[in-house]
Amino acid sequence: MELAQLLKGARVSSGQSQLALAVRMGVSQRHVNFVEGARSRPSRVLLLDWLAQTDSPPSMFNAALRMAGYAALSDTDHVTPCESGCDTAVLRALDLHMPNPGFVFDADWRVMRFNASALWLIDQVMPDLAPTTPGERLDMIAALASPRGWLSRVHRPVEVGAALLAQLRAEQWSRPALAPRVDALETALRERFGDDVLRSSRAPTTTYLDLVLETDLGPLSFSVLQSWTGLPTDQDATSSRAELWFPTDDGTAAVVREAMG
């Protein structure tokens, strides 16, 4: 009954009659009436179309899917909950996080946005891999695998590499498209560091990491935290995340502040 009430509420809020919504979805008014009366269970396709045609808020999509007993949104649905609202929240988070580095990357670990401090950090650590064209997305997995990438400047590269490899392996279970790139990362890391990169002391579900980067300005120490935006119902295998870097000593904080003016 909760699902029926949610769907009826979505239609009423959009100002549409049952007939108007039925026409837009290409079904009969009788079927719409049956769904709203909890006498018929909508298909997954109809459920998504219903919410799209009523301009429902992003968080409602996964909530409705779970009520109906369906899997959460995936890439094949071509629907991204929390896209505009969460983009706004993420951009505000990156702005407020200045002068410290902040990134946003998608479920495939490709950077979608970064603040000025993050771009400065990339230039300090791996200038050869810095984006050079507008809209170019830095591949975070490739940046870990590259001998000129993140791990080339990090203290304890085996420990850090093992932790991130374990996290990516855990994520690929719900994001199978990651598997070929994670396989390539594992091969690259084993060639550089041996089999120790397969043994992480950190739980793969941990989403923070303390690290020290060696730069021309001296060592920079950070605690890196990954965080998701939106309501809990928005989170699935397609969700983007913010990665916020926090200086962990006064020297690092001073260097970052000076660089950002």
Automatic annotation (TrEMBL):
* Entries under InterPro entries matching the protein: Cro/C1-type_HTH (IPR001387), Lambda_DNA-bd_dom_sf (IPR010982), MLTR_LBD (IPR041413)
| Source organism, top-level taxon | Bacteria
Annotated MmyB-like transcription regulator ligand binding domain residues: 88-257
Report the Pfam families cross-referenced here: MLTR_LBD
Checking SUPFAM superfamilies in the record gives: lambda repressor-like DNA-binding domains
Instruction: Kindly list the GO molecular function terms attached to this UniProt entry.
Output: DNA binding
The protein depicted here goes by the name MmyB-like transcription regulator ligand binding domain-containing protein
Q: Please report the organism this UniProt entry assigns to the protein.
A: Roseateles aquatilis
Q: Mind giving the lineage of the organism this protein is from?
A: Bacteria, Pseudomonadati, Pseudomonadota, Betaproteobacteria, Burkholderiales
